[in-house]
């Protein structure tokens, strides 16, 4: 055969083999990966724990970032099936971490005194400095009066306190700072009134749970206060059910459910925007009765005291609840920084739902501790709880002696 023909055939055959090898080439495994199919019990690349699994399952439940610092998009959740108007959010999901242990109630008073001493030092030091001078003139008494008014004590309580102090200073004739402080302490304690019953009505009675409503205007921290009250009661070994009857503020129900989940409290809520808050409150109480809870706490929407229709709705919620249980406690949440402006709010709420106690928030960030006296004098109901800060356990039962000592520390 002609040599040229043989060379041509050999070239064609060689080219065909090269093309066949190129087409059949398998992709190389990634660097650091498995060279073959991984079994179910094989560890993931870089996994030294010996537990196996995949990298996605072992990844911490945090927002991861991609190579360029951009968020990794999670797959969209499937559309949920229709749910009833109200639902009980279980406090403990199967994969949830361990429940938090709320701080004991007894230790909170010490924090109250420490924080009030910092925020109200001007009040206490100012009064003591004025009353300890060698010559207490009319001008000094005017300054004492002004200091008390600036602390939101109120006009009548201020005049009463100044008159009592003037009489004692005149009779006893003492200028010793310690004796003056003792006199001021005694008079302030009388005004705060330690004889008031400041216990929360949160115990079962007649085979049913106690029912507590929490009310107030917008922005005072009602939902947060409800969550903190739940922690206080859990710390005292009470079983609690939350009712998310604030159906108007976006994410209010989710916020309350999160507070409950931290300490093992179930939350009854609606999955419909703008649902009837009275029906949610009714279902929360029914759930509390069925589960034999100690107390049901109903969070309500914030409302301005000058909106008659919203105030009427608050009365409706209370009437609907009372179809199956008595409302034992109605707590009005007030922002201590609003001072005397909070009194107008308190009066209207008291007319609609019969306030039984006050929860004062943001007390640590204000020098207006006198609002405690003013509110109690105006409503005739006690301050039962005080908010000390932003922490989950920064809510404490109010104590008259401790409060005054913190003011004068």
Q: How would you sum up this structure, described in words?
A:
The protein has 409 residues and is an alpha/beta fold. 44% of the residues lie in helices and 11% in strands. It is built from 14 helices and nine strands. It has a nine-stranded mixed β-sheet, sandwiched between helices. Helix 3 packs parallel to helix 14, helix 5 (138-150) packs antiparallel against helix 6 (155-172) and helix 12 (341-353) runs parallel beside helix 13. The chain starts with a helix and ends with a helix.
Offer a few descriptive terms.
409 residues; alpha/beta; 9-stranded mixed sheet; 44% helix
Low-confidence stretches: 26-84, 92-96
> Helix proportion of residues, in percent?
40-55%
Shape: elongated
| Terminus-to-terminus distance | 118 Å
> Strand tally, please?
9
Structural class: alpha/beta
The string of secondary-structure elements, in order, is: HHEHHHHHEHEHEHEHEHEHEEH
Radius of gyration: 33 Å
Could you report the average pLDDT, rounded to the nearest whole number?
76
Largest sheet: 9 strands, mixed
Q: Could you state the oligomeric state of the chains shown?
A: single chain
Please, how many helices? Answer: 14
What is the beta-strand fraction?
5-15%
Query: For the largest beta sheet, what order do the strands appear in spatially?
Result: 1-4-3-5-2-6-7-8-9
